[in-house]
Amino acid sequence: MYPDEKLDEEAKRLFQHLETVKGGACSEWTLEACRLIAPTTLEINELKKEKNAIILAHSYVDPEIVYGVSDLKGDSYALSLDARNTNADIIIFAGVVFMAETAKILSPEAQVLVPDHESGCSLADSLTGEELVVLKKKYPDAAVVCYINCTADVKAECDVCVTSSNVHHIIESLPEKKILFVPDKLMGKNIQIEMDKRGVDKEIITSDGTCIVHDVFDTSFIDAARKKHPEIKVVAHPECTPEVANAADYVGSTGGMMDYVKNSGFKSFMMLTECGLVNRLESEAPDKEFIGSCKFCPYMKKNNLYNILQLLKDGPSKNQIIEVNEEIRIKAKASIDKMFSMCN
Ligand code: 13P
Ligand code: SF4
Questions:
Q1: Which atom of ligand 2 is nearest to the CA of 184?
Q2: Residue 293 pLDDT
Q3: Are the C-beta atoms of 244 and 236 separated by less than 8 Å?
Q4: Whose CA is nearest to atom 8 of ligand 2?
């Protein structure tokens, strides 16, 4: 039990971040709503200190996690660097399992935990390491590039890992013309278009995965929105279809989309991505306005304050602990390290 004074102070801290946000556990964050979650955020933050734990939060998780209890927040690339650089004994990954696996690959000494072991990803689930071995045999002269949204087994079979923030630079720098890019076929098509635009001679071959959040946007959403709000700027993630990417004003990683909106002189945006990112922008760029369009990732939304508190208070159950076989880890780490070295 916390004294009223402490709860009021925590409620005020939360309210400063959440006042302008229209999502997460509340569709309207009043000071009273913040007061209701204050005992939980206080307890989580105290337990983190006690246990030398940190919480890494992807921008797609609910805002009360991002602003209430996370230590570091960002896109997949930034969070993988954070995971590599931490000295924490425990890393709680509020995101999805492949991100937590990446953290374990980079920080094997830490105990890496996920609030819900079913926080998968349709892309990561679309291809196994064994399937990639078979695919590689069909294209022996191709460089194998894996999007970070894949399992450790798949990363272990790749030459280099990429994220949406560095994929073009990395593919452009590879000497091979043929690139086997897995597991996102829509992002693969978008990369091919970008390489052609840049005059870089590459042939992108893909496997068959898609993101169930981004593959549903279509250009009719954009046409309708532009008709009604001719002033809007359309912002999309490269996991969207090439038609959507082509019709958007900006296409980029979650970090790139945030920077674009924050630094833009325009006011109204249509965000073709996960709603958590819109919530971050509502908090951090309150002068901007967002025309309804975002979608929920069911996997990201499995994270909440209560399963995070449970992890710290009661300890993890077996399936909340991320383990990666050491042989796989070393091979997977090589593909991630190659990404880091190519981004320097
Ligand atoms: P970012 O790498 O842009 O953070 O994207 C991760 C993701 O899962 C997008 O759906
Ligand atoms: Fe995977 Fe799509 Fe969810 Fe990102 S938004 S974690 S790619 S299912």
A1: 7
A2: 81
A3: yes
A4: 121
